[in-house]
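User: Structure tokens for both sequences below?

Assistant:
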Amino acid sequence: MNREEIMKVLPHREPMLLLDQAFLDQEGVAHASYRIPQKPFFCEGHFPGNPIVPGVILCEIMAQSCFVLFVEAFEQHLVLYRGLDAVKFRGTVHPGDLCEITATLAEHKGSLYVCDAVLSVEGKRSAQARITLALTPKA
């Protein structure tokens, strides 16, 4: 999916839409990418002279990447964050970097889905997390 196709299912919009491309492979692994803009709003003041993408933004990029696992559910459900565990930051991410994300479904309990996500830049793991999402019926 390209950015326009992603916007048809993911409710996020600028400046919080943090995916450029996404797809689900034959093994059920979600793949997504996002190029950090040269002057993103979330790097203003973080840190002057050496902008670094905040960890919370990396977590949001990984969570949005998990949506690919639930594309078919978006017509009837809203997918919401319910937990964030085992978060590790292994490298810094800077404006201009291309983030490549993989996400897999690890567990499913009722309406809760636990996903493992990894964000890499130039083949090096920069962040990882276990993300719990809930499928909530749309009103």
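Moving on to the next sequence.
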Amino acid sequence: TDDGQNLFPEEIPGPAPDPNSPAERFYGAAIARIVRGILVLGIAGTAVALATFGIRTGVSFMAGAGLAYWNFRTLVSAVNSLGDRIVAGHSREKGSAIVFRFISCILLVGIAGYAIFFSWPASLPGFLVGLCMPVPALMVEAGHEGFIALRRGL
């Protein structure tokens, strides 16, 4: 701005958050709950796909859910590493290694989708639905956080 005010102050006004507060502990565990949700929904979805649509769709769904789980974990790791590298400068990883890991995830999903499309074309929808497992896991987490926030006043 022209008046010389800093738009991004170095310190946020107010007391620093207490890492031991119930709210910080609850919201800090969100990633672990989402990862667990992806696993649970992936296992349940695989069982349903196997029972309903057969072995090929079930295996395709399982491959998609497994890649979604791995992709989500890699994304979380990359964001944490890049954030640590930018904010604190204490990351042990090079930026290029972080980016390579993230891009390799996307390439692996593309290769798996390509392989399923040409080997079992009718099973591609199962694979794509399996890839979407983070979405319902995030929705369950959002509902859980909303319920707990209203119930406990977090």
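User: Anything stand out in the second?

Assistant: The chain has six helices and no strands.
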